[in-house]
Amino acid sequence: MNWIQCLSKSIQYIEDHLTDNISIDEISNQAYTSSSHFQLLFHLVFGITVGEYIRNRRLTLAALDLLKPGSKIIDVAMRYQYDTQESFSKAFTRFHGFPPSKVQPDKIRIFRPLAIKITIQGGFEMSRSFVDEFYWNDFKNQKDELLSDTDKYQRIVNWAVKARGHNPNVFDALTEWILDDSEWTDDRLAENEQILMQGILARFRSQNAQLRAYLKDIKPSGIVNEAVFNAIDRFDDELSGKTNYDDLRDVISKMFTDFSVMRDRKIREQIAGGKTGPSGADSVDVFGYVNALKECDARVQWTLFMPDVVKKQQKGFKVEKFEYMKMPAMRFIGKESCEGDGLDTVEGLKRIFSILDTMGEYKSGFDYDVLLQHHYGRGVDVERQHGFWGRFMKADTPVPEGFVYFDFTPQRTEDKFVAGPPFISQFAFAVFSGNMEAMHKSEGYDSDAMYDITRNIILGQDVNIPYPDKYWTAEAFLDGYDNYSTAYMFSVEL
């Protein structure tokens, strides 16, 4: 059985068991391969992870089931392997853009079963092909005098929208190409140098130069976000090998000085780093050069949305307040949110916060109920985070039995690439208003809109996010845990 047949068989197995609790081992067995190899092959061929495919198909079928007369949300949630109605509703809203209680046949998103179609190209063209898959800027008639400055700027923003949705996947493909040992034989080295150095890096430098020229031309009108020039400067530095990351400087210098070092697998691992984007981060031990380029590419795109990015949200969703805050040392106390433990239910959360309510003498001054997300990676997107329900308390607050804690300290440490405490107690605090569904709608790279907007503002103001060891976010429930969150917190370095 060839790999096409194996993948097709595994897809059919998934389709036959979408209402069952299936594991990656069971699925990979259909392809007669290991789970790790199967997941890599699946993402390489289809561009999404196995978990994303299962989730998308389940949520598609769940919506169709809810349209049937007499359907109950809780029954559908259980049918598609969600432990609670709350977790199902949140996933459903992120995918479809509205809660399951408001499902409508003309508005649901349909994610159809995958099928395999193969197109073969010859020789080096297969490696070279993804160079042109990047969404480069090409603004035809940008200098057309019939266009207003606002129209010209909107044309640039329209490009950024398309690039934001497309380029992450291509960066992931670039990472996989660099890590493919078969691509780095002696006879391919010169070709690969042309692809990477004269192809990708040179094209990005040309793109930046065009963007800079277009933006300077319309700058006097006052509609250009000033921060975008800083973003372009930083991207230019990375593209020329003048990296901002101390831990990458040596290996990038080696690549620019003598490209033949790319024969060394360890060098290529540092250049490639781990995959981010839709596949999630598979490693945070090495933050590679490609990750740095991906981050800079996103920074340029996102800063183009400022200051009117919020206006692009639906139904009056907007930022009411945004500020950077420095708090004294704090201790976050809470419990980890895990599916199936009941903590995501109102009753489960009530038990947590009723205990914290008895500790009023330890209030920190920032006394909101929060869902803290402690992330484990860096880049445009990350997964593998831990969620904790709790509150920020004074430093050295005694920890109740059964609770966990994280200390947020004003000082920085010398530790590198360590995911965990101590955290820094500096953060961006964004307060939102408007439609609650829009606040939690998936935007950008499959994050809640509150996450995206907060992060965009931070990037637009050229403030650093402390990847990866002190990277955290939190939803703040200003009206209590039993109401929707209306604020978002994002760790920063001030």
**SSE pattern, N- to C-terminal:** HHHHHHHHHHHHHEEHEEEEEHEEHEE
The value of Rg in angstroms is: 24 Å
Our count of domains comes out at 3
Question: Alpha-carbon distance between the termini?
Answer: 57 Å
The spatial strand order of the largest sheet comes to: 1-7-11-10-3-4-2-5-6
- State the helix count: 16
Structural class assignment: alpha+beta
Task: Describe the global form.
Answer: globular
Percentage beta strand: 5-15%
- Spans with pLDDT under 50 lasting ≥5 residues? 119-123, 276-284, 377-384, 415-419
How many strands in all? 11
Fraction of helical residues: 40-55%
In this structure, how is the largest beta sheet organized?
9 strands, mixed
Q: Average pLDDT value? A: 80
Oligomer: single chain
Q: What would you say about this model in short?
A:
By secondary structure, the chain is an alpha+beta fold. Helix content is 43%, strand content 13%. Helix 1 packs across helix 2.
Account of the 3D structure:
This protein folds into three domains: 3-102, Homeodomain-like (Arc Repressor Mutant, subunit A), CATH 1.10.10.60; 125-307, no CATH class; 310-491, Multidrug-efflux Transporter 1 Regulator Bmrr, Chain A (Alpha-Beta Barrel), CATH 3.20.80. Helix 8 (149-179) packs antiparallel against helix 13 (289-303), helix 9 packs antiparallel against helix 10 and helix 10 (227-239) packs antiparallel against helix 13 (289-303). A nine-stranded mixed sheet has the order 1-7-11-10-3-4-2-5-6, with helices on one face. It is 43% helix and 13% strand. Mean pLDDT is 80; it is low at 119-123, 276-284, 377-384 and 415-419. The termini are far apart. It has 494 residues and is an alpha+beta fold. It contains 16 helices and eleven strands. The protein has helices spanning 3-16, 24-30, 35-46, 50-66, 73-79, 85-96, 125-128, 149-179, 186-218, 227-239, 246-257, 265-272, 289-303, 346-357, 436-439, 449-460, and strands at residues 318-326, 330-336, 369-374, 386-394, 404-409, 423-424, 426-433, 442-443, 447-448, 472-477, 487-491.
